[in-house]
Design goal:
With 146 residues, this protein is mainly α. The chain has one domain (31-136). The chain contains six helices and two strands, in the order E-E-H-H-H-H-H-H. Strand 1 and strand 2 (19-21) form a beta hairpin. Helix 2 (35-53) packs across helix 3 and helix 4 crosses helix 5 (89-100). The chain is globular. Residues 1-37 are annotated as: Disordered.
């Protein structure tokens, strides 16, 4: 079992003579998570998405990212990860914070885009156009055209 390293705390005297402590870093707020663990989880996630959907862009589209902007909220991302049994809720939240570089204590909601998943704009536009075209074919006699 890996032990958590103690946070470096610096005391500063205030004008009133009280001691203030420097807040713990984001790293220590994750408890058992480290940058290496986050990176490894992200790589495993990418492999799962590519094996399920063929590419990261296709997977992000199927996760429900907005076709125009490629944006997906943390709430939607976590919901889909849990529904697809890719990871639990805590792992999905941690992963989202990793690739968006979001501060877990920030009140403002951070929204990921296709760029956070290392997808370039041309690939995103191509996948969106392909997926939308595939769903626009008329079905005749119960079969899609060849």
């Amino acid at each position: 079992m890996e032990q958590e390293s103690p946070a470096v705390v610096r005391s500063v005297s205030s004008s009133e003579g009280r001691q203030r402590r420097t807040p713990s870093s984001r790293q220590t707020s994750h408890g058992d998570s480290s940058d290496l663990d986050d990176f490894q989880n992200y790589q495993r996630f990418r492999l799962k998405v590519v094996s399920m959907f063929g590419s990261m862009a296709s997977g992000l589209f199927e996760f429900g990212a907005d076709p125009e902007t490629g944006r997906i909220s943390q709430k939607d991302f976590v919901r889909v990860c849990v529904k697809l049994e890719m990871m639990n809720e805590r792992e999905a939240q941690s992963l989202y914070q990793h690739f968006t570089n979001a501060d877990p204590w920030d009140e403002e909601e951070v929204v990921a885009t296709f760029k956070d998943f290392s997808i370039d704009e041309d690939e995103w536009r191509y996948v969106v156009a392909s997926k939308q075209e595939a769903t626009s074919w008329p079905v005749v006699g119960g079969e899609a055209p060849p």
